[in-house]
Specification:
The chain is mostly helical and 657 residues long. It has a domain of 119 residues. The chain is built from 31 helices and seven strands. The strands form two sheets. It has a five-stranded mixed beta sheet with strand order 2-3-5-4-6, with helices on both faces. The chain has a two-stranded parallel ribbon with strand order 1-7. The chain is globular. The two termini are 37 Å apart.
C-alpha cells in the first residue's frame, strides 16, 4: 500500500514539473504551433502514467559504485540508528525505557493506517470518475445506434473524395443524429463522425465540407487513440489539477490543429471558417466527454481558436525542433542510479569458450545466447577474438544465437553487431559455417549474391551502419514494390518471402513495413488463388506461415484462413493442414467452431493423415473439450502409428483438463 501511495506522489511530482515546463514554453512562445502544444500536453499525461506504473526508467549511473555495508554489533547499530533519527550523538542517548519502546512500535501502525486511508480514498475516486465516463460513453453509443447514414448520392461521392484527398485508410462512417448537439468523432478504429441532422440541414455545401474536413483531420491524426493516454491519466490522477489542465489543453490543441487542417486543405479564409464556428457554437450545447472530439468540444476556448486562426505566422523550424527535443528529453523518466561493477569476467569467458571444444551443439547454443545477452561491444569483442578457434558446430550455433532471439517461434535478433558477426561467418574457412552465415545474410537482404566480391562490397557498405537501417534498406523496397510486379516476378519474390517468414515477427522495422504496404491483402489474394495448385503448395504453406508471423487482428486473419477451413471449398490437404495449425491460436476465437465443422466433415471422408494430424494438434493446443467426441471417433479410424499417437496425446491432454 505504501508503494502505491509513493508512486502516486512520484507521478504527481514528475507530471507537475513537466506541465510547468510546457506552460512556460507556451507562455513565452505565444505563436507556438498547435502540434507542439498538442504533443507537449500529451507527454505530460504519458509521463504521469509511465512514472505511476514504473514501467521503465532511464537510469543515469552517475552515483558512485554501491558498496556493501559492514554490519555492526547489535548494540552499536541500535545507537547509530537512533542517533541519526533524533539528531543526537551516541554519548547523549538516554537508556531505553518501556515508554520509549512502546512509542517506536506504534509508529509503523499509524503510518500503515494513513497509507491505507489515502489508498481507499483514491480507489473510490477512480471508481467514481470511471463510472461517470462509462455512463457518458453509453450515452454516445446510444446516439450512434439511433443515427442514420447520409443517403444523398452527391455527399456519398464527396465523402469518398475527401477520404482519398486526406489519405485516410477507409471512408469514415458519417451519420446524422436527430439528438446530437455538436459534430463529433467517436472511437478510434473505424471511427464514426456524428453530425446533428438539424445543423447539417442549416449549413451550406461549403460549410458542410469544412465540417467534414475538420472531423476527418481528427481521424487522420488518430486523436481517438492518442486521447486514451490523457483520458487514463485524468482517471488515475483525478485529484491532481495539472493533469486535468493538461488533458483539457490537449483537446484544445487538437481542435486548433484540425482548424488549421481546414484552412490548409480547403483553402478557405479564416473569416469564412470563423463564421462557421460561430454558427455551430450558437447551435451547440457542450458535451464534455474526453473520448469525443468535435468542432466545438469546449466552447470556453472558442475565442482562443479564433485568435489562433488570425495568427498565420510560420514557426521557425530550428526553434520548433529545439523545443520538441527539450520536451521529449524532459518527458523521459530519468533517475540517478549507482554505477555497477563490470559484469564481464574475461578469464571466466575464456574458460567457457575453451570448454566448447568438447561440448555438444546444445551447450554451444546456450553459450551463444549468453554471449548475445552481454553488452553488445563486449560480446562482439569476445566473438571476434575467439571465433575461429572454436569447433565448427560451436561457430554455427553462435551464429544462430546472435541471429535468433529464441529457437521457437523463430524471431530474428536485431543485435547491433549482427552484420559484423555474420561477416566472420561468411569469411570462415569451413563451407558449412559459410553456408549458415549466407543463409542468415539472405534473411536480412532478401537477395542472392553472385560472387564473393559482391558479398565483400555489401559488407563494406553496411558494416558500420545500425542494424535497423540495414534491415529497412532491404525490406522496405522489397515490400513496397511487391504488389506492383508482374505475376511471375511477384511469385518469385513471394517464394523468397515464404522462406524468410520469421522476419515478419520483427516488431520494430519489418512488421510495421509489412502492414504499411498492405502485405496481408496480397497474401490473401495469392493464397486463395493458388490454394488448389499442387505446384504452388510449398509457397502457399510458407505464405500461411507469413500470416501467422504477422499476428494479424482477428477479423483480418479470419478473412484469410476461414475459407481454407471451409470443407465445401476445394483446397489441397497440405495447405488445409497448414491453415488448421495456424488458426489454432488463442487470438482467434472463431477458430474452434470452424475446426469442429471441418473435423466432422473429415470423418465422413477417407482418412487424410496430414489433415487429421493437424486437427489433433490444433485441438490439443486450443484446449477445448468440445473436441473430445470428434477425437475419439478419429482414434477408431486412424491406422498409421504416428497419427494414432498424435490423436491419443490430444485426447489425454483434453481429458486431463
Amino acid at each position: 500500500m505504501e508503494s502505491i501511495v509513493v508512486a502516486l506522489g512520484r507521478a504527481c511530482l514528475h507530471a507537475g514539473l513537466l506541465a510547468l515546463l510546457v506552460w512556460l514554453i507556451i507562455k513565452l512562445w505565444r505563436t507556438a504551433p498547435s502540434f507542439v502544444q498538442r504533443w507537449g500536453w500529451w507527454l505530460v499525461c504519458a509521463k504521469s502514467l509511465v512514472v505511476l506504473t514504473g514501467a521503465f526508467w532511464f537510469n543515469l549511473p552517475l552515483l558512485p559504485v554501491e558498496q556493501r555495508a559492514i554490519p555492526a554489533e547489535p548494540s552499536d547499530y541500535r545507537h547509530s540508528a537512533s542517533s541519526v533519527s533524533a539528531g543526537l550523538q551516541p554519548s547523549d542517548m538516554p537508556l531505553a525505557s518501556p515508554k520509549r519502546t512502546i512509542s517506536i512500535s506504534i509508529t509503523p501502525s499509524m503510518n500503515l493506517s494513513w497509507h491505507t486511508l489515502v489508498l481507499v480514498l483514491w480507489g473510490m475516486g477512480v471508481l467514481v470518475v470511471a463510472s461517470v465516463l462509462v455512463g457518458r460513453w453509453r450515452k454516445v453509443r446510444r446516439l450512434c445506434a439511433q443515427s442514420e447514414p447520409i443517403d444523398d448520392p452527391y455527399w456519398q461521392t464527396r465523402l469518398h473524395a475527401l477520404s482519398v484527398d486526406m489519405e485516410l485508410p477507409d471512408v469514415p462512417r458519417v451519420r446524422l443524429s436527430p439528438e446530437m448537439h455538436a459534430p463529433m468523432v467517436v472511437g478510434g478504429w473505424r471511427a464514426w463522425v456524428l453530425i446533428p441532422r438539424a445543423l447539417w440541414e442549416r449549413l451550406t455545401d461549403e460549410e458542410r465540407e469544412m465540417v467534414l474536413v475538420h472531423e476527418f483531420a481528427h481521424i487522420r491524426r488518430g486523436d481517438g487513440w492518442w486521447g486514451l493516454v490523457p483520458l487514463l491519466a485524468q482517471v488515475l490522477l483525478f485529484f491532481f489539477p495539472p493533469i486535468r489542465y493538461a488533458g483539457r489543453h490537449w483537446e484544445l490543441s487538437c481542435e486548433m490543429e484540425s482548424d488549421q487542417a481546414v484552412l490548409n486543405d480547403c483553402r478557405y479564409t479564416p473569416y469564412a471558417y470563423g463564421n462557421l464556428l460561430m454558427k455551430v457554437a450558437t447551435f451547440t450545447q457542450p458535451m464534455p466527454t474526453p473520448v469525443i472530439l468535435g468542432m466545438s468540444h469546449n466552447f470556453a476556448y472558442l475565442r482562443t481558436r479564433l485568435k489562433r486562426m488570425a495568427q498565420r505566422n510560420r514557426a521557425s523550424l530550428p526553434l520548433t525542433l529545439g523545443v520538441m527535443v527539450i520536451l521529449v528529453f524532459a518527458s523521459l523518466p530519468w533517475q540517478l542510479t549507482a554505477q555497477q561493477a563490470r559484469s564481464l569476467n574475461p578469464a571466466e569467458w575464456q574458460s567457457k569458450l575453451h570448454a566448447l571444444q568438447q561440448a555438444d551443439w546444445g551447450s554451444a547454443y546456450e553459450v551463444g545466447i549468453e554471449l548475445a545477452s552481454l553488452p553488445p561491444d563486449e560480446g562482439y569483442a569476445l566473438i571476434q577474438a575467439h571465433f575461429y578457434q572454436l569447433p565448427i558446430h560451436a561457430r554455427q550455433q553462435i551464429l544462430k544465437a546472435f541471429y535468433f532471439t529464441r529457437p521457437y517461434p523463430l524471431r530474428p535478433r536485431m543485435h547491433p553487431h549482427l552484420v559484423r558477426i555474420l561477416e566472420l561467418g561468411v569469411r570462415d574457412p569451413s563451407p558449412s559455417v559459410r553456408s549458415w552465415a549466407k543463409s542468415y545474410l539472405h534473411g536480412i537482404t532478401l537477395q542472392e549474391f553472385e560472387s564473393q566480391e559482391a558479398i565483400d562490397a555489401w559488407f563494406e557498405r553496411y558494416r558500420h551502419l545500425p542494424i535497423q537501417r540495414v534491415v529497412q534498406d532491404h525490406w522496405e523496397p522489397f515490400l513496397r514494390t511487391l504488389p506492383e510486379l508482374r505475376q511471375e516476378e511477384q511469385e518469385q519474390r513471394l517464394h523468397a518471402l515464404a522462406k524468410e517468414f520469421a522476419w515478419l515477427r520483427e516488431p520494430t522495422v519489418v512488421r510495421p513495413l509489412a502492414m504499411r504496404y498492405r502485405l496481408p491483402d496480397l497474401l490473401q489474394q495469392t493464397i486463395h488463388t493458388h490454394k488448389n495448385n499442387p505446384d504452388m503448395a510449398e509457397m502457399v504453406k510458407g505464405l500461411i506461415e507469413c500470416v501467422s508471423a504477422l499476428q494479424l487482428e482477428e477479423s483480418a486473419a479470419h478473412a484469410i484462413l476461414a475459407p481454407l477451413l471451409d470443407p465445401q471449398q476445394p483446397c489441397l490437404p497440405a495447405v488445409r493442414a497448414m491453415a488448421v495449425r495456424t488458426s489454432a491460436s488463442p487470438r482467434y476465437r472463431w477458430a474452434i467452431g470452424e475446426l469442429l465443422t471441418l473435423a466432422h466433415h473429415a470423418l465422413e471422408q477417407p482418412v487424410e493423415p496430414e489433415l487429421w494430424g493437424a486437427l489433433a494438434e490444433a485441438f490439443q493446443y486450443c484446449g477445448d473439450t468440445r473436441a473430445l467426441p470428434v477425437l475419439k471417433q478419429m482414434a477408431t479410424r486412424a491406422e498409421a502409428p504416428h497419427l494414432q499417437k498424435a490423436i491419443a496425446q490430444a485426447i489425454a491432454e483434453l481429458e486431463g483438463q
